[in-house]
Write a structure and sequence with these properties.
The structure is a homodimer.
Chain A: H1 6-9, E1 13-17, H2 26-37, E2 42-46, E3 52-53, E4 56-57, E5 71-74, H3 81-90, E6 95-98, H4 109-121, E7 125-127, E8 133-136, E9 156-163, H5 166-177, E10 183-188, H6 197-206, E11 212-217, H7 223-236, E12 239-243, H8 248-258, H9 265-274, E13 278-279, H10 283-294, E14 303-308, H11 311-323, E15 328-329, H12 334-343, E16 354-355, H13 362-373, E17 380-384, H14 394-406, E18 411-414, H15 419-430, E19 435-436, H16 439-458
Parallel strand pairs in A: 1-2, 1-5, 5-6, 6-7, 9-10, 9-11, 11-12, 12-13, 14-15, 14-16, 14-17, 17-18, 18-19
Antiparallel strand pairs in A: 3-4, 8-10
Helix pairs in contact in A: 3-4, 6-7, 10-16, 12-13, 13-14, 14-15
Chain lengths: 468, 468
């Protein structure tokens, strides 16, 4: 590894260079976010004029502090960055996140080269410039200069998310905050003048707090190193990737955006597929797949059972499974059929999809889920709970979570609706059941699990979870 | 037309047969929903024992009322329905919604035949049995026996939604309630013993309050009549259809669900495509396409302009447009380029996608949208507003609505995120701008508009709106 990124993600102390008393300033928002996130390390606001900011004693320079500073967030005008970074070097600061823009992305390559030279000289692990930086839900470091009312911060989890684009990154971060699966680390790496995507991915591959990696990239600079890493990383944990520049129009747009050479998508895709990456085609896929992988269960085959309390949605799901490339609608063993016939009311047709009726309650869901998950003919369970129906309530949500915990097979849910449904969706997700808002999303996600499981099998990695 | 459905959708008076004082009973929920919806017609609870229910005088039979009753909702056990329906006939009731189940769907065809015979004898337009019935946001008739805390009711609009399945219907109704486009009429027609999908679609074709029709069907009984209607209906207004049974597995599941003969999907699809139906492949499509059509603008060509305040999402959208079947990324005329260069800051690259920057505010959105919508090289506008960025706020939302109103060209938006974004999404949607949560959904919806516009052109219908 070129860099140890621990000081970036787990700093024991942070200097905010450019901290300000003015709430409109980036440096104020950053300091404010550290304070309100409950960051437990030491915080040093750096400001030329102020005595104190947000109740913390302020310093004119990192050299004035007189104590060890592990990481610095730099949020001052571009032309002042080289001097501030040099002071960091002299003060023994190990890492710096330069959020400031106005470097290579606006044609100012010389200034960018200058800060890289400083970083190299003083062995500073430098992220950026022109980036949102990092967030770690456990250490509570958070260099994002956007207020929490605009971007909600996700709860702690085991999915880490790397984005070349700050806009894509902050948007998905905000979306993840309303999902139940939680986040480990977020990185927006901007111009990648020093630390780049290969460094970050290599760090996350070894990170014990990361089980699933989600990546948005426009271009890759160190292609050879990326391929070498790609070969190793998916043997350790799943990587979901959305690569911009799938089309000529996208390639041109990407170049205009981050000056990235998006290159030949087909070549990238070939590498991704060869090495078992989960390729997303759109925004939704990133979240949907991450959610499925975060639930940590590995399918052993392609046969899907569908349980529903709404016949129509069951029919649509069956169509989606049957239209998919690899999955098929499972058939019940005769033992399971007999057992189910004993406990289900006569109106329930014992077949897949199994419609337990609009009055299907927690008892009926429990019976169906436990018997289907014990059936050797079934590899995955897709459970549809329409909370609009009379039988579906919090008890059903609790039962689905319980049954998911009791089986080794992947269980995903589909619930569609507004307020009442959203409340129960949250219950399910906080219990570790991935919930989708359309049958198609659920089916695509199960297929992504299967494809990755098959890749690991081909590579001889046969653990019951993806994360062992 | 076989039936006049006005008494179903616009009844001046409603008898609720099976109204109950017990809040757990279906008949109670229905009466309660009429009362709390502010239904302005006369309401007559029918109950053998109670003197009054929910403050309304109760009657033992419709024959006792002594005033004209236009419509009856029947929510009593199946075996009691023939007698109640006969009394409706004798009392001159014009229409009945039989929500009760326990007829043909459980093998009781004889009882179903009996009530059809009664309906025919007395010329009662009968919907059901085994259905949720109807809801009309203007007359406020609402026979859905599900409480509003479970299924939110949408605001008034011009989209009507017909669903064979009660589960699919109520779920989508609940989803539509959290969208801004509004609903005109909802129909869940169940066993279709008398009134069927052809009758309902024919009524909606002529309905002045319906501009867009959304249909979920499993099987069609009167195939010949359906094809005749299909030939006419899309000349008048767009019809979005999701047909279950796209696969063998789906056909079997549909038969088990509503005993529908889902038939050969390819044959259905051929009819849909020949007659300009907008074919949905999944749940999301139904809502996404409905939203686009509800915005009432017709594209004149396939060239899409993309405006964004987040470069990465702009790149993804460009990829989505370029990957689509019919759309292409537009190129600006040189006049527009010159005019934009004068008003945009130098960091903005004057090209499509046009990234106005993370600090892009209402002024910059306004300039970009007005100039792009006046460019003869552009047919449709896709505007991305990431509300996580510093420049994006309520003023931007208001400006996008303003610019949408000022142009004849379709404008759709993409905004992705949690609380802050959702608030602003609602502002945009209530202003008539369809908002999508992924670039792909927006692009697919623009393509659906284009396909329908091209169909109308081929049929020689050249109005500037779809609804003239």
């Amino acid at each position: 590894m070129r860099f140890n990124l621990d000081p970036i993600f787990k700093p024991k102390s942070v200097a905010v260079i450019g901290a300000s008393r003015n709430p409109d300033k980036v440096g104020h928002v950053i300091l404010q976010n550290y304070v309100s996130a409950g960051y437990s390390g030491k915080l040093y606001p750096i400001n030329l004029a102020a005595e104190s900011i947000l109740g913390l004693k302020a310093y004119k320079s990192v050299l004035e502090i007189g104590e060890d500073v592990e990481m610095a967030v730099i949020a001052i005008p571009a032309e002042a960055v080289p001097k501030a970074l040099t002071e960091c070097g002299k003060a023994g600061v190990k890492a710096a996140v330069v959020v400031t823009s106005g470097f290579k992305e606006v044609g100012n390559a010389a200034l960018q080269d200058e800060i890289v030279k400083v970083a190299k000289k003083y062995h500073i692990a430098m992220l950026g410039p022109n980036c949102l930086g990092v967030m770690d839900t456990r250490s509570r470091t958070d260099t994002l200069f956007l207020p929490t009312y605009k971007i909600a911060r996700p709860q702690a989890g085991y999915v880490s998310f790397v984005s070349q684009s700050g806009g894509v990154g902050s948007t998905l971060l905000d979306v993840i905050a309303s999902e139940g699966f939680g986040l480990s680390k977020f990185v927006s790496y901007g111009n990648a003048a020093y630390i780049d995507e290969v460094d970050i991915l290599e760090y996350l591959m070894h990170d014990k707090e990361t089980n699933v990696i989600v990546v948005y990239i426009e271009g890759i600079t160190r292609g050879k190193e990326f391929v070498e890493l790609a070969r190793k990383i998916t043997k350790v944990k799943p990587v979901i990737v959305l690569k911009a520049g799938r089309t000529e129009a996208g390639v041109i747009a990407a170049h205009s955006h981050t000056a990235a050479l998006a290159g030949n998508y087909a070549a990238y895709e070939a590498v991704f597929k060869q090495f078992g990456f989960t390729v997303a085609d759109d925004f939704d896929d990133l979240i949907n797949y991450a959610k499925a992988f975060a639930s940590e269960k590995r399918p052993k085959g392609n046969r899907v059972a569908i349980i529903t309390n709404g016949g129509g949605v069951g029919v649509i799901a069956a169509d989606d499974v049957a239209s998919s490339k690899w999955l098929k609608v499972g058939s019940l063993s005769s033992a399971t059929k007999k057992a189910l016939a004993k406990v289900m009311p006569s109106i329930v047709n014992i077949t897949i999809p199994m419609d337990i009726g609009g009055d299907g309650d927690s008892k009926r869901y429990g019976d169906a889920l436990s018997m289907l998950s014990n059936d050797p003919n079934i590899d995955m369970l897709l459970v549809i709970v329409l909370f609009q129906t009379p039988g579906a309530d919090s008890k059903v949500a609790a039962e689905v979570v319980h049954q998911k915990d009791a089986t080794e097979k992947p269980v995903v849910a589909v619930s569609i609706g507004s307020t009442y449904t959203q409340t129960h969706k949250t219950m399910l997700e906080e219990g570790g059941v991935p919930v989708y808002e359309s049958p198609l999303f659920a089916v695509k996600s199960l297929e992504a699990l299967l494809e990755y499981a098959e890749y690991r099998k081909r590579r001889g990695i046969l653990t019951s979870s993806f994360f062992e």
